[in-house]
Every structure is written in structure tokens, then in C-alpha cells.
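Convert to structure. Protein one:
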Amino acid sequence: MGRQPAGLSRLVHNAHDIGFSDLSKVGLRGQQDQGQVCNLISRELSGSEDLNVSLGRILPGQHHLCHHHPDASEFYVVISGTPIVHLDGTDYRARPGDGIYIPRGTSHGITNDTEENVELVVGMSKPADWEFVSDE
């Protein structure tokens, strides 16, 4: 297959080439958000005007802080692992293949209380600059 044609360089991105970075938000009591993200489609990378798509990874024992976005909806598609997904005060044991819609303003987070990595596709209804409001 080789390298992609030059015209696709803004449209096609690979997580193995980009790599993951640690989440950087801080909670209401100063606790660090946990997990990793690899942005694949965004305003900056792709010129997207309407969405953002990333791969997310929550390692064993990590907790992605409960938070909400007043200006964007979000979704998760669980690829691997069985995390606890916190949705507006309800805890749900997710499994691979689950698609989870998170409406704008809905508090949500993820806890990986298992011994395996959790891998997710994460999408936002804005290409960038959404607000992250910690709920814990």
C-alpha cells in the first residue's frame, strides 16, 4: 500500500502514527483527569467544521472525571473492555459494541475498574473548542 496520496494527508490520520496523549483536565478538588486520547478528525487536523473524532484509552484503575459540555453533544463506541460509564447519575457496565449517546449538558465519565484496557471511539458535535465543566 505505501504512503497515501498527498491530497489525502489532511483527510486521513492514523493513531499509530500520531500516538496518544494524557488527558489534562482537573476536577473540582484538584484531582487529575485520567485516560489517554488520540485526536483523528478535528478542525486543526482535518479542517472539520462540524465534528471531532478521537480514540480514547482508559487504563486499568483509571477514572475519566464526570463532567458535561454545555455546548456540544458527545458519543462513545466501546471497542474493547467493560468500563463503568457514568451517565447523569446512573452507572452502566458497558461492553464492546455499545454505542453511547451523551446529549449536551449531560454529566458523564468513565471508570475502568477492570484489569484490561478500555478502548473507545469518541465523537463530539463540534470540531474544537467545546467547554469541559467538571462535575466532581
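Protein two, convert as well:
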Amino acid sequence: MRRAAPDPEIEARRRGEVPAETDPRIEALVHDIIGKVADKWTLLILEALEEHGTLRFTQLGRAVGRISQKMLTQTVRQMERDGLVRRTVHPVIPPHVDYALTPLGKSLGAAFCGVWLWAETHHAEIERARQAFADAGRSEVAPASAETGGS
């Protein structure tokens, strides 16, 4: 994902004090949004639109890669419903439909850019941890009865 400029308002709030109580409406919204955007298709569509700008449906599908037409339709509709994507229908024959990120969608892309930067910063540590885990798994080959406590 292309690096985006951080949102100054969010950065200012991030540096501020953590509130003593969480608004249950905000907590519910965060859980809802994470559930929707944390799937790979939403993030890949977000990335494709951020990198390529406005795309037609078929172009978007190609940019995302290996996504079914049904899943692409469902995902862009959900993103449109949440205000992340703008769908523009041009009254021509055959119909021409464009998809573009809204300012809200762009700001979400900037937020996920932080995850990208985190991964970029810590990728070597993650690879070492994965290798250590794999190595430990190979050396811990134990009989099934010992693990389950069975005889």
C-alpha cells in the first residue's frame, strides 16, 4: 500500500490521554469496522483504488486479482454503504460504472498505512520468530499419548 500522510487530527488524539471510559457506541463501531475491513478483499480493494485511482468494475477486479465477481460486488457494495467508496454510473450504453475512494476511504487507507509501516519495520523479527517456532515444533515431536495424558 502506498504510504499516505497521517491524519493530523488522529495523530493529535493518539498522543493525548486515553479516556477513562469508552463510549459503547464507538466501541461497537470499531468492532463493526474491524470486522468489515480486516478481511483481505476490502484491504486489497482499498489498496487498488488508492494506487490506481478511479477504476471500472473489471479493472478493479483485475487489480485485486483472484476475486470472484460475486465477492467483488459484495465487497464494493459494503464499502459504498460505509462511505468508503463512491460508485458512479455513467448513463451510456453499455453501462459504465466507476469506483473511487471517498475522502473517508482515503483516510482509512492512511490508517492502514501504519500497519504497513509496522510490518516493514518488524518483518525481520517476525521471520525470526516464525523460524524459531518452526524449529521448536520439529524438536518437540512427542508421542500423542504424552500430549493428551492418555496411556
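The chain has one domain: 8-139. Strands lie at 55-56, 85-90, 96-101.
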